[in-house]
């Protein structure tokens, strides 16, 4: 019924929503961008004119209906306009990760056969030019920032503003064509093609229709009561489905303003200045912000540090209950109110969360301790379970039913079923059309009735109806004694500690678990400076005896916590190493969305894993690395293999049972 209503209203595409917004509230802010330290603003009416000029320019340049237009760069209004302009002319926008290297870009550009590329700056232009010979269908490249590009060959290179100016000049010539192309757009027209992160193989092109995006955006806006006066900060990769649904789908449906930071370096400052009411971040962002808070507290004076820890202990006890409107004693309320004046309020303002009414985290599981920290401050942070193939939303957490150990209930219009093996399936109006040029993978993922295999394992709790995710189905296994192996559960507990950036657990089919750990260079480096510990590199700091000792204590504490869960107590860590390098997307060890490629990591460092299992005290290794400029090199190290305390009694009792 919802689909019919949206269709009947004529709002069957992003250009149609844009036209409505410009007509009904054209004077309201649609986009802001900070440039040279100053916020610039465009209203919906102004944005419509900017997009129309670009769309006319694209037609003038030869963009046909059905063409793929690749878009590469950081979050800027101009690049969001590019996506809607491409849709307006009947083309398909394909955003790419801006930090992808040239070869990764070449794969996507080849796969979709993009004739046109819109790039943010010289860096992105250079990547495309580097692989241009591999791109048979590529014809024209449009760039936004002209710095450094004056002496380039401009036969197929065009400045963004010039394309717009040419579109304005050719208004009378092409406006009829543009209107006809817009009028052809239906609910089943392709809205966008987004590529998966490629955790286990080559990225796949996920084709999403207008129906997928608009219905998902509409349902989510209604669920959380998002309105025209809400504000978001658009800082996540434009190639990621989360950014597309929030910064285009929901922004165009609800009509709220999209704010773009000046750069990654100024993001936190810009976040504080905007004070968004609707905020989204993957767990890693919340982890990093918590790390920075803890570092600042360690540097603070004794009085301030003690006050922080005192009130945070109280917030942990009653904060989530107060947030959910549950009964709390008068004295606890008064103490919390005092804490809000002295600690919580100033901290939220410092983080940029002072105005957040709805906050979400997704992408992968967030550690419960991290999740509860933010909620204890009074921030309405909720978990969201979703996928690119679902147009994001599979489950959501209703206000008042937010918990760290579940991902909520099925999102509006979403059906979920779980098979006998615990594998999760869903179907909804957001279910993707297909994987582009990949019918076999489409058939493997989506059946004839529209049910999609998530690849995750989980179960519904009795009574609450909330879904609990155990792990990726392919990652869940069994220990040699038959107990469950679920690595994410343990890894997330480890990552609560500010000095642990990443953790990878191994143990499927084995008699015990071992782990790789990456330290957080910012947090541990701060500790080193405060304690006059000299170091010259990540590798040197990672091997420092006091760092090894501290991490070993963290692992022992996590082991004690894991041992309390009868189902997962076999996942305690018996041995670990602090890797000599950070896991890096450029080295293929992580995806561009910062998910660990377990199979690759396990194969690349297999001799280290073998050493942990054979009882060695240390292991010497050499690893190939990729530098920022693309050059290859290698680093060698001798790693100490640590044996943390294991809560053996609990493990033995569970095994015996």
Q: What brief labels describe this structure?
A:
globular, disordered N terminus, GMP Synthetase, Chain A, domain 3, single chain, 4-stranded mixed sheet, 21% strand, 3 domains, 23 helices, disordered C terminus, Rossmann fold
Detailed description of the structure:
By secondary structure, the chain is an alpha/beta fold. It folds into three domains: 2-269, 3-Layer(aba) Sandwich (Rossmann fold); 283-472, Rossmann fold (3-Layer(aba) Sandwich), CATH 3.40.50.12780; 477-656, GMP Synthetase, Chain A, domain 3 (2-Layer Sandwich). A five-stranded parallel sheet has the order 4-3-5-6-7, sandwiched between helices. Strands 2-1-11-10 form a four-stranded mixed sheet, sandwiched between helices. Strands 18-19-21-22 form a four-stranded antiparallel sheet. The longest helix is centred in the middle third of the chain and has 22 residues, at 302-323. It is globular. The protein starts with a helix and ends with a helix. Residues 1-8 and 650-657 have low confidence and may be disordered.
């Amino acid at each position: 019924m919802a689909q019919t209503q949206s269709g009947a209203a004529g709002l069957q595409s992003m250009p149609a929503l844009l036209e409505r917004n410009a007509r009904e509230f054209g004077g309201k802010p649609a986009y802001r961008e900070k440039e040279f330290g100053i916020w610039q603003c465009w209203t919906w009416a102004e944005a419509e004119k900017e997009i129309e000029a670009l769309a006319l320019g694209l037609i003038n340049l030869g963009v046909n209906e059905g063409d793929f237009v690749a878009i590469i760069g950081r979050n800027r209004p101009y690049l969001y306009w590019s996506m809607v302009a491409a849709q307006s002319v009947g083309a398909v926008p394909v955003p790419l990760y801006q930090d992808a290297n040239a070869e990764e870009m070449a794969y996507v550009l080849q796969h979709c056969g993009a004739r046109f590329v819109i790039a943010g700056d010289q860096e992105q232009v250079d990547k495309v030019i580097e692989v241009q010979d591999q791109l048979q269908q590529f014809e024209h490249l449009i760039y936004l920032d002209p710095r450094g590009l004056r002496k380039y060959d401009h036969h197929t290179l065009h400045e963004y503003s010039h394309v717009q100016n040419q579109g304005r000049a050719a208004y009378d010539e092409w406006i009829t064509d543009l209107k006809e192309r817009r009028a052809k757009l239906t609910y089943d027209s392709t809205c966008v093609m987004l590529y998966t992160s490629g955790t286990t193989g080559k990225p796949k092109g996920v084709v999403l229709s207008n129906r997928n995006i608009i219905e998902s955006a509409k349902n989510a806006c209604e669920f959380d009561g998002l309105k025209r006066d809400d504000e978001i900060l658009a800082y996540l990769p434009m190639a990621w489905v989360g950014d597309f649904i929030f910064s285009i789908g929901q922004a165009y449906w609800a009509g709220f303003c999209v704010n773009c930071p000046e750069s990654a370096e100024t993001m936190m400052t810009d976040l504080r200045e905007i004070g968004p009411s609707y905020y989204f971040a993957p767990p890693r962002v919340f982890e990093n912000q918590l790390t920075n808070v803890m570092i600042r507290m360690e540097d603070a004076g004794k009085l301030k540090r003690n006050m922080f820890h005192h009130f945070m202990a109280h917030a942990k006890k009653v904060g989530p209950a107060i947030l959910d409107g549950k009964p709390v004693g008068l004295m606890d309320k008064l103490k919390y109110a005092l804490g809000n004046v002295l600690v919580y309020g100033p901290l939220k303002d410092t983080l940029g969360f002072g105005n957040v009414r709805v906050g979400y985290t997704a992408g992968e599981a967030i550690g419960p301790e991290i999740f509860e920290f933010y909620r204890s401050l009074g921030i309405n942070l909720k978990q969201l379970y979703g996928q690119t193939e679902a147009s994001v939303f599979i489950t959501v957490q209703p206000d008042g039913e937010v918990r760290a150990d579940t991902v909520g209930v099925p999102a509006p219009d979403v059906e979920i079923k779980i098979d006998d093996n615990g594998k999760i399936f869903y179907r909804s109006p957001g279910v993707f059309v297909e994987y582009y040029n990949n019918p076999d993978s489409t058939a493997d993922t989506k059946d004839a009735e529209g049910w999609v295999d998530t690849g995750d394992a989980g179960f519904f709790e009795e009574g609450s109806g909330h879904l609990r995710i155990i792990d990726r189905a392919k990652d869940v296994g069994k220990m040699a004694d038959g107990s469950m192996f679920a690595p994410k559960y343990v890894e997330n507990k480890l990552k609560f500690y500010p000095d642990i950036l990443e953790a990878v657990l191994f143990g499927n089919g084995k008699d015990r678990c071992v782990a790789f750990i990456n330290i957080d260079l910012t947090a541990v480096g701060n500790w080193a400076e405060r304690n006059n510990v000299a170091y010259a590199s990540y590798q040197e700091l990672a091997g420092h005896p006091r760092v090894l000792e501290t991490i070993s204590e963290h692992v022992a504490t996590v082991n004690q916590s894991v041992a309390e869960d009868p189902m997962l107590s076999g996942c305690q860590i018996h041995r670990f190493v602090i890797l000599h390098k950070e896991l890096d997307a450029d080295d293929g060890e992580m995806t561009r969305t910062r998910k660990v490629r377990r199979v690759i990591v396990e194969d690349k460092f297999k001799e280290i894993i073998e050493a942990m299992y054979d009882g060695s005290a240390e292991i010497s290794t050499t690893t190939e690395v990729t530098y920022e400029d693309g050059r290859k090199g290698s680093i060698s190290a001798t790693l100490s293999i640590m044996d943390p305390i294991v809560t053996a009694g609990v493990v033995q009792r569970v095994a015996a049972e």
